[in-house]
Write a structure and sequence with these properties.
The complex is a heterodimer of chains A (about 280) and B (about 600). Chain A is built from eight helices and no strands. Chain A is an all-alpha fold and about 280 residues long. Chain A has two domains: about 90 residues, no CATH class; about 180 residues, Four Helix Bundle (Hemerythrin (Met), subunit A) (Up-down Bundle). In chain A, helix 5 packs antiparallel against helix 6. By secondary structure, chain B is mostly helical. Chain B contains 22 helices and no strands. The chains are: A mainly alpha (about 280), B mainly alpha (about 600). At the A-B interface, helix 1, helix 2, helix 4 and helix 7 of A face helix 2, helix 5, helix 6, helix 8 and helix 10 of B.
């Protein structure tokens, strides 16, 4: 547990050299703008709930404006923040050891365990009660097996990619990182296909006792994978523009941690939800 | 209740307030006072290369500024929540429901809980931690200054969402004077399902504001979790090499454990409220009878809710352990065991949640095991209390304002804590559950040790933060008044609980009226003391005597002049070197310079 070294100190304490609208000392607009976007997103979601049903108390226009505006501001701010903070002038900025960022990711993943926990606990509650609670959809298919294999394979390719950049093999790094992105996209596609099969073809209930658990957990996981694909794609684009080296690969490391975590959650899901509901 | 006030009055008040604010904005006072102070509360102590005015506060990523924003926000929210409390105690002055109506009473005890727990206590402690932790650790800033800023800025919108029912009612009443439809605003009523949001009540209640409140709680949980991650990473990675774990100060230890609890408790609450939101709006079965049922809600909620209790109180423990020795002239007794007890509380706090559910008819074997852990968690708390007493033993005690707060905090904690041990025992709990005994028990902690530790910190570090001194005699009176108020308010509630008066009712049998009136008078005493605190500090920020000697508390004598005071001393010297006090320029606002060089010393 050493402390951060000199360069990492200056990494986040010096004013951002290239910030927008301008670098002005120890200050930044991005946190406030991001919070405004998030607030718009939440207020829009709240109003969207109030706009539902026959006795809607707000019209549909305001929630949409707030939602779209909020998401827009949120994403634009995140882009500005991270672009100026990490991407722009990459080679000119001092390289930290990234220890704080890696700790940050580990702690975020700990919170994520608890985010998933509520859904898992619900499933354990109903699973230990009278079972089955109704007709279960047909879950164990070759699609799940293939999807699982794809996701596990993507963890392997990502690990190889990370090892490659650590060893300084840039081309192999790019190739395996690209393969990981492709496998991630395939998995998301597989999940969408499964949802289509279950909801449209088979007509499974979305909100019955089992459906609540199944779609809440796989949906939350699907969102995580989709976000992971976006993060990996960002890393890939940055790698394609020549960033990262054997000494500087913090973003690769943190994104890997996230991706492996999402992979592990999937294995838990397969064991408890898919196999566990019929076993 | 809002409906009773004519909208036009509210409109005039609001517009008047706005006009007054704009007037203040348009006519700013001169930037520099002749006594060397500026209008900003951080007198010459922060870096100067920041933008000025409102822009500075909107864009700041400095831990000290963000800490002040947190403290300001938390105090404002606390005053709002205190208004709810005053409304409740006013209603309970008489047995019948004559002051407010039942709906209003239900709403104020709900929003009182939500506001105080999520928007008062944690933000204020996060603020104190933000300001002090990097100074105590000798770090430049928090590990992630910008995440620090965004975590703060998410809180005001969350508060607006959570308390939206009242805001929309006020807006509706104001705008109602205009010929426009305000039905949507009036349809949102303040939430009244109780802060624990038990299902099925919270799923069945029609009030659409509940959905808005749930989203607000989710957003505030994200903000709190980001701040916790920031604290942990700061403590782990931002310490200089020569500051090992064995040298870590006691407040940082407590913030570390608190943040660890937040890390595991708040995300679960976030998911749980989203599941409730889905149940309310999309017909999922998470807390429906055929699904997880009401017990699932209680398990998930209290798995968050009991660690939350320690999330609230551990920073207070940390502040007491840090400040107490400074006024005893001795080191903290049993430092290492206080750290161990903090960690033990952190771990055990995740194994006691079902003691909130003893009366639900859960499995008796589970009940017994939760009873055992709940009783056992009293041990680390007692270790702290005894070590504090041992620290005072044979010390040269100095009854300054912070010290009075701390002694009061220790005494309220004895009663508040020991009454909790009784509640941890299943048979006792079955008798006292949902009575005012429970309210008295936890309020002796949340209106005892927690605000007293905050106020102790405010008195202890006020000179460091503002560069000025407050009126110490008033501060001592205020601290004493708060302690008296806390006991007068909450000890009668313990007795009322023994007599069987249930909580959460606006009306009660006439036999309880005497003790209820005593409790209400005590609550108003607390209110007066809070106002005194506020007036003292606000006035002292403006015109308090300038501190010229950084050793305000004579800490050098006993070798306890810690890092943050050293930082303060460096700042004062730097300021003196850069900008000597102009002796020809004494404006109306300033103190004469001979007084300025002689700040009130603790006696």
């Amino acid at each position: 547990m050493g402390s951060a070294d000199e360069s990492s100190e200056s990494d986040h304490h010096a004013p951002a050299p290239a910030d927008w609208p301008r670098g002005f000392g120890e200050a930044s607009w991005w946190p406030l703008a991001t919070a405004v976007g998030a607030a718009g997103l939440y207020a829009g979601a709240a109003l969207a709930l109030l706009a539902r049903g026959e006795d809607a108390i707000v019209g549909p226009a305001l929630p949409s404006v707030l939602l779209v505006g909020g998401v827009g501001i949120f994403l634009a701010s995140l882009y500005g923040w991270t672009y100026h903070g990490f991407v722009a002038r990459y080679w000119k900025r001092a390289a930290g050891d990234g220890l704080d960022l890696r700790w940050g990711m580990v702690l975020f993943l700990a919170t994520d365990v608890m985010t998933f926990a509520a859904g898992f606990v619900y499933f354990f509650f109903v699973r230990t009660g009278p079972w089955p609670p109704g007709e279960l959809p047909h879950l164990l298919s070759s699609l799940v097996a293939i999807n699982t294999a794809v996701l596990v394979a993507s963890s392997v390719t990502l690990h190889v990619a990370h090892e490659s950049i650590r060893g300084g093999h840039r081309r192999r790094f790019l190739a395996f990182l690209g393969a990981t992105v492709v496998l991630g996209v395939v998995f998301v596609g597989g999940q969408l296909l499964e949802y289509y099969e279950l909801l449209v073809v088979e007509g499974a209930a979305l909100t019955d006792v089992f459906g609540s658990a199944f779609f809440a957990l796989t949906g939350l996981h699907g969102l995580h994978v989709a976000l992971g694909v976006i993060l990996l794609a960002i890393v890939l684009v940055r790698a394609g523009r020549g960033q990262f080296s054997a000494e500087r690969h913090t973003a690769v490391a943190t994104t890997s941690m996230y991706w492996h975590f999402v992979d592990a959650v999937w294995l838990f899901l397969v064991v408890t939800l898919y196999v566990g509901s019929v076993a | 209740m809002i409906g009773a006030v004519p909208g036009i009055v509210l409109a005039v008040a609001l517009l008047g307030g706005l006009a007054a604010y704009l007037r203040v904005q348009r006519d700013p006072p001169p930037a520099w006072y002749a006594d060397g102070g500026v209008i900003s509360p951080t007198v010459g102590l922060t870096r100067t290369e920041k933008p000025s005015g409102v822009l500075r506060w909107l864009t700041t990523v400095d831990h000290k500024d963000i800490g002040l924003l947190y403290i300001l926000f938390g105090t404002a929210a606390g005053l709002w929540g205190a208004t709810d409390a005053m409304m409740m105690r006013t209603e309970l002055l008489v047995p019948e429901t004559v002051v407010w109506n039942v709906e209003t009473y239900n709403a104020v005890f709900t929003t009182h809980g939500l506001t105080m727990l999520f928007f008062f206590v944690t933000p204020v402690f996060t603020g104190i931690g933000n300001y002090m932790l990097p100074l105590l650790l000798d770090a430049d800033d928090m590990a992630f200054p910008r995440i620090n800023a965004v975590a703060f800025w998410l809180l005001p919108p969350s508060l607006v969402l959570v308390r939206g029912g009242l805001i929309s009612d006020v807006l509706g009443a104001v705008l109602g004077v205009l010929p426009i439809g305000v039905g949507a605003l009036l349809a949102l009523e303040p939430v009244s399902m109780g802060w624990t949001m038990y299902t099925p009540l919270s799923t069945e209640m029609a009030n659409p504001q509940i959905d808005v409140t749930l989203l607000g709680l989710h957003l505030s949980g994200i903000a709190t979790t980001m701040a916790a991650i920031n604290f942990i990473v700061t403590i782990v990675t931002e310490r200089p090499d020569d500051l090992g774990w064995d040298e870590l100060d006691i407040f940082s230890w407590n913030m570390l454990v608190t943040s660890g609890l937040i890390l595991l408790a708040f995300p679960l609450l976030g998911s749980t409220v989203i599941l409730l939101l889905l149940d309310r709006n999309f017909g999922t079965t998470f807390f429906a009878i055929e699904g997880g049922g009401p017990m699932l809600w209680q398990h998930l909620f209290w798995f968050f809710g009991h660690p939350e209790v320690y999330i609230l109180v551990l920073p207070a423990f940390g502040l007491i352990s840090l400040i107490l020795p400074k006024f005893c002239g001795r080191r903290l007794f049993g430092f290492r065991f206080i750290v161990y007890s903090t960690i033990a509380i952190g771990v055990m706090s995740f194994g006691v949640w079902a003691h909130h559910m003893f009366a639900t008819g859960m499995d008796p074997r589970l009940r017994a095991s939760f009873m055992a852990v709940s009783l056992a968690i009293a041990i680390p708390s007692a270790i702290k209390e005894f070590n504090w007493i041992a620290t005072m033993w044979n010390g040269s005690l100095e009854l300054s304002a912070p010290m009075i707060c701390i002694v009061g905090a220790m005494s309220t904690f004895v009663i508040g804590g020991i009454t909790g041990v009784f509640l941890a025992a299943v048979p006792v709990d079955l008798v006292l559950h949902d009575t005012h005994y429970v309210v008295g028990h936890f309020h002796l902690i949340v209106v005892g040790i927690i605000p007293l530790a905050m106020i102790a910190a405010s008195y202890y570090w006020f000179p460091l933060i503002t560069g000025r001194m407050y009126n110490q005699r008033l501060a001592r009176a205020q601290a004493t008044l708060l302690i008296v108020g806390a006991f007068v308010t909450f000890v009668p509630l313990l007795v009322l609980g023994y007599m069987g008066m249930p909580r959460r009712y606006a009306a009660y049998p006439a036999e309880f009226v005497g003790l209820n009136q005593v409790a209400s008078i005590g609550a108003f005493v607390i209110g007066v003391s809070v106002v005194l605190w506020l007036v003292n500090l606000v006035q002292s920020i403006r015109v308090g005597p300038i501190v010229e000697d950084a050793d305000v508390w004579n800490l050098k004598e006993t070798g306890q002049f810690t890092r943050e005071w050293q930082w303060f001393e460096d700042r004062i010297e730097k300021r003196r070197a850069e900008r000597p006090l102009p002796d020809d320029h004494t404006g109306a606002e300033s103190e004469p310079s001979e007084e300025a060089t002689d700040p009130e010393k603790p006696d």
